[in-house]
Amino acid sequence: MSKQHSAGFLALVNDAKNRVTELSITELQQFNRPYVLVDVREDHEWQAGHLPGALHLGKGIIERDIEKAVPDMQQTLVLYCGGGFRSALAADVLQKMGYKDVLSLAGGYSAWVAAGLPLHQPGA
């Protein structure tokens, strides 16, 4: 079941996507440079499962905590959320904060799961 997003939210996301580079799961799998994978979903989403190797900095705190977690503003960051909307918004903000190479994973966690790719399941 997909979520119905409000028109205002979608307009905000589409505006951010004009400034943010998205990459597909296939492009991420073929990525040939070091990156930090950042899950920007809510705590309960993270606890239910996440991509292997991801760092969790929810969208509600990422601006506050990113500089401590990833102090190198040249470091490539790949952000993901449930479907690619919140990650685009967070990527836009991180670029405004001075991060030079921030990408958003198109389709996010939902696309990863749909592709049957491995997950980290806490407690498993």
Automatic annotation (TrEMBL):
PROSITE patterns: RHODANESE_3. Residues 31-121 form the Rhodanese domain. Pfam families: Rhodanese. This is Rhodanese-like domain-containing protein.
